[in-house]
Amino acid sequence: MKKVVLITGASSGLGKATANFLAEQGYLVYGTCRNPKKYENPDKYQLIPLNLNEVNTIQNAVDIVMKNEERIDILINNAGTGIIGPVEELEMSAIQSNFETNLFGPLKLIQTILPQMRKQQNGFIINITSIGCTIGLPYRGGYSASKGALSLLTEAIRMEVSSFGINVCTVSPGDFISDIASRRYYAPLKKESPYNEIYKKNLKTINEHVNSGIKPDIIVKKIFQILNSKNPKVHYSVGSPLQKFSVILKGILPSRLFEKLLILFYTN
Ligand SMILES: NC(=O)c1ccc[n+]([C@@H]2O[C@H](COP(=O)([O-])OP(=O)(O)OC[C@H]3O[C@@H](n4cnc5c(N)ncnc54)[C@H](OP(=O)(O)O)[C@@H]3O)[C@@H](O)[C@H]2O)c1
After folding, report:
1. pTM above threshold 0.85
2. How many domains does the chain have?
3. Probe residue for ligand 1, chosen from 7, 134, 183, 246 as the CB with the greatest number of ligand atoms within 8 Å
4. DSSP-based three-state secondary structure for 25
5. Over the stretch 197-235, which tens digit does the pLDDT of each residue have?
6. CATH number for 197
């Protein structure tokens, strides 16, 4: 019997690449995005509507899969958006919306699917976070916070559901080529903002990193490998050696030195 996968954010970037690959490997894949009509119908999987910022659409998407397949074996909480700007000048409504997409929506989806996975005594949930979830990145404070919260939530849920035969883990990407930079929310800076100059330098580096990022194949294969591992870990990082090393550096360097290096990295 084919395993049934529900993956959010499958109209673009990492989600689309993962949905295609898993379908090629024999999984039965349902991908989601806010408005499937905007996109050409994928050949290998079904694209169904789901808006993480609208709770009723989450239940609808799960109902569609359950009606057709009567089970959901794998949930990949992949959809997410960036938010960028100095924390002082981020509008509360923009941060709240980012948390809806990156944290509360994925949480609601997990809550909606878990009863079925418990009934099956089997399931796998992968939450896509970010290497930026372990480091509070300057000018990406809102993003680091929403992804960091998803990461901690994963640790907790994982222990709560393991006795039901359900695995939960995170995959945190470094910079991968995708549409994330063009889709992310940019805080409109005030003309006289004291952050203007330094923020522009940071933004240039941040966007250069996404544009020169790694192709999604690597993360897609990692996800496939994780899904097939007997005893998966709680956290996986996938990215350039420097990005993965930065997480280790944070743990071993004195915090003020680490901060200096990070600031230099983004402003040079
Ligand atoms: N690419 C990177 O370098 C990178 C690095 C770290 C982490 N990540 C994480 O990896 C995941 C995939 O990102 P990506 O790079 O592939 O980005 P992307 O190309 O911008 O794709 C984002 C996907 O999420 C969907 N989405 C956005 N807002 C949504 C909402 N409110 N409700 C439902 N779906 C929504 C989009 O679908 P529609 O717009 O069609 O609805 C799209 O399919 C995200 O969680 C991102 O934070 C990416």
Report:
1. yes
2. 1
3. 183
4. coil
5. 999 899 989 888 888 889 999 999 999 999 999 999 999
6. 3.40.50.720
